[in-house]
Amino acid sequence: MNLLGEDIVTEEGEFVINIGPQHPSTHGVLHLKVWLDGEMIKKIQPHLGYIHRSIEKMSESLSYRNFIYATSRMDYLSAHINNQACALCVEKGLQIEAPPRAQIIRVIMAELTRLASHQLWWGCTGLDLGAVTPFFYAFREREFIMEIMEETCGARLTMNYSVPGGVMYDIHPNFQTRVKDVLKQIRSKFNEYDDILTGNVIFEQRTKGVGYLSPEDAISFGCTGATARGSGVSCDVRKWFPYDGYEKVQFKEILETGGDCYARYMVRMAEMKQSVYIIEQLIDNIPQGDFQAKTKMVLKLPKGEFYQRVETARGELGVYIVSDGAASPYRIKYRSPNFCNLSALETMAVGSKIGDLVAIMSTIDLVIPDVDR
Amino acid sequence: MKEYFVTIYKGVRSLLKGMKLTGYYFTHPREIKTEEYPDNRATLKMFDRFKGEVVMPHDEKNEHRCTGCQACEIACPNGTIKIITKQEIQPDGKKKKAIDTFVYHLELCTMCNLCVVACPSDAIVMAQTFEHSVYDKKQLKKVLNKPGSKIMEGVE
Q: What CA–CA distance (Å, rounded) separates B52 from A310?
């Protein structure tokens, strides 16, 4: 019996353990209740709510300019993309469009964020599977991207750079040269990533064939991002529903058909190269002009419902605003990618060993503040 | 049987490949780009846009640019800024609104920069300080206008 009066060993002889909420490999305060038969996983129940801050309810009392800053705290690794989604949704309601310069800046920043996020994920995946060195190599390159963010946006993680109508201020004069330097550096390091982790025999054996997710399950659970694309489901919002001028840039949607941890890993590794490719196309072609469209002091959305989806580093983020014509939203709902990806965890992990659970969780790339909001 | 040895060969080869890389960095300490923070405080310079805390610049005559319009107070999502205004009697006998105290709660601030953008007279800016930790929470409540300061002439 535990403190709650529940049996630790069930009648069928299954052993119940709690992983988290303070477990290092759950990447935050996720609490998983796992039923085990020996080493085999029989059932998983995620317990949520340890980092719920009621961002959606809080946004109802804030104006359309003010509520955006809170979304940086949802999926803090793709903070800029979250801000961009909110800004785009408000712009949709106001029926304005950001100037071309602002759109290009936003896309470059979003891809840099995606790159930084995937690098952190790569390091943490190595760490979860027992390789400590990749963590330091990943953070080395990520640091350069963080410096770009710090120089132009003024903050490393929670930048709040996208505002309705464009970006908050123009790019820093050093921005273009710094981005080019960093891209050159990152490009030369991709081979190192492959050498140290991708081809490693221990890594391959711990990920290949582990945590299989069929395409049908991926669709029915609403998985998006690399989790679904690893199973061969084409779901890249940048391709299907382009926003902010993604239709003008060339890039490939990465699809793998394996459906296991290794496939999801390969999707993200290839996505990093695509992000570099996107930024390389845009960095020399930032058009001159305004960085922000002219908006009124107090923004008021017309009565109605507005929905905007974007592709974050983890999948599809949807922002749904219901407006009653006032200066603050009537209701805001975020469709967060991690919540849906987490729901597929049980399907992936049941039947595999408990050690594989860590590998599965790290390749879904969960960010818990985004699950709870 | 042959497959068994091929697997061993491939495994050892992949491990050596990884160790070659770590060995390279072990023997080339110049490639390491770590900054040792508390030791480099004298030379550490933050980027000029870094958002550390909100400050109100004063000139040498102890004058600031804040008119007390409270645009920043409205723009702040967290209630970080509280402005207490007073009526000041000018030399020509007219009354004019002026700030008494500009209270800034650093402990509530998320450095979103919305107040600085909202300010119509550029009275507040972001400073590049970042070592904010104190032992008492009360020390984080700051008054931004200096004692005895006045509004700069020509700022409406």
A: 30
pLDDT at site A1: 58
Decide if B77 touches A, using CB distance below 8 A: yes
| Six token digits for residue A5 | 């009066």
Fold of the B53-151 domain: Alpha-Beta Plaits (3.30.70)
B20 close to A (CB below 8 A): yes
What is the arithmetic mean of pLDDT over A223-252?
87
Average pLDDT score, chain A? 86
DSSP string, A243-308: -TTGGGS--PPP--S--SHHHHHHHHHHHHHHHHHHHHHHTT----S-SB----SS--PPSEEEEE
Cα–Cα distance measured from residue A118 to residue A123, given in angstroms and rounded to the nearest whole number: 9
The partner residue sitting opposite A62, judged by closest CB among B46, B47, B77, is B77
Q: Which of A165, A161, A169 is nearest to A295 (CA)?
A: A165
- Give dist(CA B80, CA B50) in Å, integer: 19
pLDDT of residue A5: 62
- Copy the structure tokens of residue B138: 């009360």
Chain segment A11-22, per-residue pLDDT in tens = 777 888 888 787
**Binary contact (B77, A153; C-beta < 8 A):** no
Q: Is the pLDDT at A2 greater than 70, yes or no?
A: no
Between A26 and A209, name the one with better pLDDT: A209
- What CATH superfamily is the domain A53-210+260-338+352-372? Cytochrome-c3 Hydrogenase, chain B (1.10.645.10)
How far apart CA A149 and CA A72 sit, in angstroms, is 14
Min Cα–Cα distance to chain B from A250, Å? 32
ipTM value > 0.90: no
